[in-house]
């Protein structure tokens, strides 16, 4: 899967800082590759275990030319509902119960807590504290969304981005790829230009992102603020996690700060009256002070980058990531710019258009990019808590399940159907979006563990997805959580609006036995809440030794 590791780690560190200051969850978007440079990209560390096997042998799942997605998902839900369920039963462990009670006893009295620990193989409940209490799960919602997507779409599902020709237009069509980068557009341009005369008579670029509904910010996502990257918009065609990388460098003393925006679309404009897809308004000066960098929506889906304040002379370059207004328009603009650079011609104008699901005889396919398998793409959401990835996947699930443009309302309905198929506790849940970035979402620990129970089936989509979880001390949000546990702890963190959550699996030293757990805490002190979660995990590790 193409992505720069250093960029992912940088955004993870940023998200941790935002969480500590109360500005965000650990859900900041990973930084994407530097753009409009040579189309090279670094890979994540080599995959191992089930993920490596899947990547080696996976074949692309059916895509837009497969008409039966609704029936396939319906059938999969029926099959999940028909699987034998192991009813949870109490088999208390005194050591674990005492450890849970002791950890919760250290919490702020205002903290609301819900906990359950089960034996993964037998569903025996070893310890619990109000496990049916519905609390805000924050990013633990991503566990449910990711497992639902893997089970219903298939672990080897691949997103397609394609270039088609109709009349005098090239059509850039997206199907929700959460991991599309400029290097991938380079590859599309290479494939396109390999055909002689491919650009003959072409006068415009059209963006087709109608696999998703027109709404771009999900429920719980605020349009206010400075354009923080962890609240990026969603679209069927989106580049670099629907964000821009903005780099500031000092200029001459008391002169303008130098600003670089990446990726650079065709028609980048500067000044208050600019009319490019991205408009840069830079009033920052090179002198003592601090800069302020924001993005805002301009007319016609344009993204306005506003740089104000000051950057001291001699200051090191400063790079920030901010969301865009219209992901599809930006992707189309970058594609047009790459075409212009490679063909040495003028940049084509970019507009939006919708194609039928099955294009007619007047439209032909010229180039196609396929993403990595779904479970590889989901590592961004599960390890780094990338909100954008979770929302892209949820809306793709909604599109495939309904046959209509993917909306959050339809996505929530699919999650509800999934919940009813795998858990007798589905009625107590409230799922608002795919990422958990909401004050309104509610899950119970016993439901989360019903979903995690799907991982016990060897070779199942949910079991394969475990390779994309964060592990203690490794890359992602568990880097500094129980690091000595290493691969014995696979879990998902969550932090937002007073909610702190940790759910996942703890293994014995051989990997043969596993406990599933969910610790949801709302209110109180964040550091004390995390310390309590870590103490509970440590107790599970000791119990398995």
Describe this structure as you would to a colleague:
Helix 10 crosses helix 11 (408-422). By secondary structure, this protein is of the alpha/beta class. The chain has two domains: 46-156 and 374-544, DD-peptidase/beta-lactamase superfamily (Beta-lactamase), CATH 3.40.710.10; 159-371, 3-Layer(bba) Sandwich (D-tyrosyl-trna(Tyr) Deacylase, Chain: A), CATH 3.50.80.20. The longest helix is centred in the last third of the chain and has 19 residues, at 526-544. Helices cover 30% and strands 21% of the residues. It has a seven-stranded mixed sheet with strand order 1-3-2-19-18-17-16, with helices on both faces. Mean pLDDT is 86; it is low at 1-66. The protein has helices at residues 5-20, 49-57, 69-82, 94-105, 141-153, 182-193, 327-343, 374-377, 379-384, 387-402, 408-422, 445-452, 461-465, 526-544, and strands at residues 89-90, 112-119, 124-129, 160-166, 169-174, 204-208, 243-249, 258-262, 269-270, 278-282, 291-297, 303-309, 318-323, 350-352, 363-370, 470-471, 489-496, 499-507, 514-522. It is globular, with a radius of gyration of 24 Å.
Characterize the overall form: globular
Radius of gyration: 24 Å
End-to-end Cα distance, whole Å, is 35 Å
Residue share in β-strands: 15-25%
At the fourth level of CATH, the homologous superfamily of the largest domain is DD-peptidase/beta-lactamase superfamily
Query: How many β-strand stretches?
Result: 19
Helix count, per DSSP?
Answer: 14
How is the quaternary structure best described?
Answer: single chain
CATH architecture of the largest domain: 3-Layer(aba) Sandwich
Strand order of the largest sheet: 1-3-2-19-18-17-16
Biggest sheet descriptor: 7 strands, mixed
Share of helix, binned: 25-40%
Structural class by sheet pairing and helices: alpha/beta
The total tally of domains equals 2
The CATH class designation of the largest domain is: Alpha Beta
* CATH fold type of the largest domain: Beta-lactamase
Low-confidence stretches: 1-66
Mean pLDDT: 86
